[in-house]
Design goal:
The chain has eleven helices and no strands. With about 210 residues, the protein is mainly alpha-helical.
């Protein structure tokens, strides 16, 4: 069974949960207006269904863009703008604001990883993983970053062994966290799909050809 077949053999519920988690998963930087993360919405959605993104508050966007113009070194304004766009599933518009914020504060691991998520959502998985690596230089044990690394490896690069390694790492660094619960879902989903697709008698262990 090819890696691609395994990817598409993963259940719709599992896929929906992980995609819901990666969209807006960080949300860790200071924000003026709170928006429910897509991850929370996805967790309560019916299997395979994705909730509609919240509408983009154009009035708030206009206000923030003017503030960003007036305050060229204000990180929080840029992060909120990026968050608004990301929450509305407009990662293409979020990217330049996250990039600006990161230039002003290069040590913000949440912004770095949100930027990686946006690269992934705009079909730039290699760039996303490179940004994830930068996040892990800032904080090697940042569980949300490592969780997202696994998702990007699995769904962006079809690197199932790499995804499994990332999710197992989440269990090591934050075993009781919400990220660990998602990582366990990922691990179980990959192993289940692999077991279902393995030829009879080949086994499902971690030896050659396994996970």
């Amino acid at each position: 069974m090819t890696r691609e077949s395994v990817i598409f053999g993963i259940s719709g519920t599992f896929f929906g949960l992980l995609v819901g988690w990666i969209i807006g998963s960080q949300q860790g930087a200071p924000r003026v207006s709170a928006v429910a993360p897509a991850a929370t919405q996805a967790g309560s959605a019916s299997p395979g269904a994705q909730p509609a993104p919240p509408p983009l508050d154009l009035q708030r966007v206009g206000t923030l863009e003017q503030l960003a113009k007036d305050r060229p070194t204000d990180v929080a304004v840029r992060v909120e703008l990026a968050n608004l766009y990301q929450d509305a599933e407009r990662p293409d518009l979020a990217i330049p604001w996250y990039e600006q914020a990161l230039k002003l504060n290069p040590r913000d691991v949440n912004v770095s990883t949100d930027l990686a998520v946006c690269y992934y959502m705009t079909e730039q998985p290699d760039k996303a993983l490179a940004q994830i690596d930068k996040s892990l230089v800032i904080d090697p044990k940042h569980s949300k970053t490592i969780l997202n690394q696994g998702i990007i490896r699995a769904f962006g690069k079809q690197d199932l062994k790499g995804a499994l390694a990332s999710w197992e790492r989440v269990l090591e660094v934050a075993p009781n966290s919400p990220e660990a619960a998602r990582a366990r879902q990922g691990i179980d989903g990959l192993r289940s799909a692999h077991a279902e697709g393995a030829p009879a008698g080949t086994g499902t262990g971690t030896g050659r050809g396994g996970f």
